[in-house]
Each structure stands twice: as structure tokens, then as C-alpha cells.
Amino acid sequence: VFQQTQVRKILDFLRMRKYPNDSLTSKHFPLSSKEFVCIFNFLYSFMDPRTDSVLPLTRFDEEVLKLLKTLHYPGNLSRSHFVTMGSLHSWPTVLGSLSFMCDMASIYSQKLFPNIIALGFPNRDESGFTTDRESKEKIQYEHHLDCWHEFNSGADEFPEQLRALNENLMENNGVDVARLECLGQQKTGLEQELDRLEGRGSRKVELLEQKQVLHSDLAKMTEYLHKIEIHINEKQEEGDLKTMELEELFGRLEGTRAEVVELRSNCEQGKVSHLEVERNGVLIGERRRQVETARLEVEEMEKEVWQKEIKVSRGKESMDSLAKQINSLAMQEGLKTQSGETICLHVETFQGGRGEGTLANNSMRTELSEMARSSRTLTRNTERELQGVMTASGKFQEEVAMRKHELVSKEGEMARVVEETTNQKEHVDREELLYDRQLADIRDELHHLKSQDRDNTELKQ
């Protein structure tokens, strides 16, 4: 039964693989020496396709023993088995060797040959671990096979195969072709820019000198602004003192008016003599004329004050326009405080208190100091990266020249505005002194009237 099973297996393989002698059946077993050699050569051709006839038709017994030994046949064979293969005691051994060759041919034809490329080029990385990518050697081997077919067809160049090889390698390595092309274009542009910049002379010394000049100008401007803030604070304090003195004078004036009303009521009620009443009437008429004269003078002063206020308003408008220009420049340059807000200058009026303005000025000064400190830090970092900044030195020089011109213009405008403001304040101070002297004269006259009224009261008593 075992021999029949092996014979049937051999016949099935031969029919499936299209053995030339298709008339072979189980009745031909045990085989003749010639048929054995043909079947053995046919089975061995699956293991070594380069060899068609590994065994000769005659005197093959020595060769078959060597071949089976090289194939590591596990059974025991001798030359006599093949010499007398038709006998009953030798045929089972010969059939076993033929069945072994059939199994080997099945393994080679079904397992090894279909997967020879995958077995020869395993998908492993450099450390020997399995990956989901094909090996570079496998892709190159398939490319060589495609080129070999084209070469056999008479082709000398293989552009399509090379393009397919490039695409397969890119895809297998996970390369983004679009990004690679974009980087190539960027590389070309940067190389052209580098060639253009290398052709220009170095301006490092000139830029360093300009940088030092700008630092010096910035320090001078910061010091000048600090002095201006101190001067403004002092003037605001003086204005507050003047306001307090005026309020005190107005209070005294109200008290004097109350005393005058009281004296007038006493006169109307007849608490004084007739002569005193007449004398007081004359004095009152005279004082009324004096008061009318003082009122006219006050009106003239008010008109003059009004004109001065108009001048001050115009000066404030010029300061507002300057502040707007500075704010617009700060917005264009993107200058921001630590809180992320854009730097904005506010022009304060000369009325009311200055607490909020002082806090705003102090906050602004602190922000500007922080910005100056951060600017110095940025400058130090820029010195370290000067080699990179040289690529944009042309634009930087133009921008520095423009900023320097703007700084000079702003300094001129600031000096003019400060001078105008100083002149206006000096004029206002002179007017305040004049008004103070006039108020002192009026106060003396009121004291004189009060003393006369007191004397009249004593005479009456």
C-alpha cells in the first residue's frame, strides 16, 4: 500500500508538471533503468534548472549515489540497488529515493521558486528586524530584471525603468517628492542670493559705526526726555500751588463780600448816624466807582487771558499733532508695551490734577526703559548673528537712514514744541504775578475799607 501511495504521488506530480512521457502509468512500475534516469533528470531539473540531464542513460549508478548524498538523502543506498532495481528486494529502496526526489522537486517548485525573490531579499532593517518596507536590493534586482527584458528586446537605454526605479526608491523610503522639489527650488534661490551677496564688499565696520552712533543718539534722547518729564512735573506742581492760592483768595473775597453785605444791612436799618450814613454813601459811591474800574480792568484781563488761552490751545493743538505723529510712527513700527498694548502718548491739559498723568508718565517711562533694556539685549544677540544679518545689510542701511532722518526731524519738532511751551508758561507766569499784585492791591483796599468801617462804628458808639 505504501508503494502504491508513493507511485501515485510520483505520477500525479509528473502529470501536473507535464512530463514528456504522458503514457506512463502505475503498470510501468518497477521502472526500467532508462525510464528511471528520465524521471530522475526531470525531477532534478526543478532543483537546478540549468541542468537538463544530470544522469547519463548508461552507467548512472555511481552518479546517482553522489547526487543523493549531496542532497542529504537519509536512506541507505548502494550500487547494487540500482543495478538490480527491477528485483523485488531492490525496487522499494529505489522507489524511496525517487519519492524523496519527488518531494524535493515539489518543495522547490511550490515553495522556493515562487518566493525566491522574497527569500533572497528579506524585508529587514539594519538591525535585522522585520519592516513593512521592501529592501533596496530587491528593488534594484527587479529593476535589473526589467532592464534585462528590454535588453533582450534590443534596447540600449532604459529611461522608463530608471524613472520607475527612482519612484520606487522614493516611495519605499517615504520621501515627499513635492517637498523635495520645493526644497530644491529654495536651494537654487538661496545659492543665487549667496552668489549675489558674495560679490558685494563687506560693510561690517560701517554698520558697527552706525550702530554706535544710533546707541549714542538713543541715550541722549532718553536723557533729554527724562529731563523734560522732570521739568513738566515741576511746572505742574507750581500750577497746583497757584490753583490753591487762587482758591484761598476766592475764599477771602467771599468773606469780604459777606462783611460788605452785613455793613450795608446795618446802614439800611439806621444803626448809624445821619452824617455817618452820608459819609458812608459817599465812600460807597467812591468804592463803587473803584469796583467798576476794577471790573473793567478785570474784563480787560479776562480778554487778555482769553487770548492767551487761545494761544495755549493752539500750542496744545500742535502738541496733539506731534503726539499723533509719534503714535502713528509707533503703530507703524509695532512698538508695544509689556502688556501687549501699542505705545501711545497723551497730551495733558493744564486744568485739574495731575495724578493720573504722573502715573501714566511713570508707567510709560518704565515701559520705555524696559524696551531700551530689551533693545540692548537684542542688539547683543544681533552682534552674535551679524554674519546672518549681512545678507540683508542693504535694506537695513536704508531703514537706518530713514529712521535717523525721522529721529532728527522729531528732535527738531520736539525742541520747537518745548520752546513754545516754555514761552507760553513764562508768559502765563508773568500774567499770574500781575494778577497777584492786583489782587493784593484790592485786598489792601478792602482792609482799608474794613478799618474805616470799624472806625465809623467806634465813632457811632
Please count the helical segments. 14
Helix content: over 70%
Low-confidence stretches: 350-356
- Distance linking N and C termini: 171 Å
Shape: rod-shaped
Q: How many strands appear in the DSSP assignment? A: 0
Q: How confident overall, as mean pLDDT?
A: 78
For the sheet with most strands, the description reads: none
Using only C-alpha atoms, the radius of gyration works out to: 59 Å
Tell me the β content. Answer: under 5%
- How are helices and strands ordered from N to C? HHHHHHHHHHHHHH
- Structural class, judged by helices and strands? mainly alpha
Describe the fold and architecture:
- The chain is mostly helical and 461 residues long.
- Helices cover 76% and strands 0% of the residues.
- The longest helix has 68 residues.
Key words describing this protein structure:
single chain; 461 residues; mainly alpha; 0% strand
Briefly, what is this?
The protein is mainly α and 461 residues long. The chain has helices at residues 2-16, 33-47, 61-70, 79-83, 91-112, 116-120, 136-152, 159-172, 177-198, 204-268, 274-333, 355-384, 386-389, 393-460. It has 14 helices and no strands.
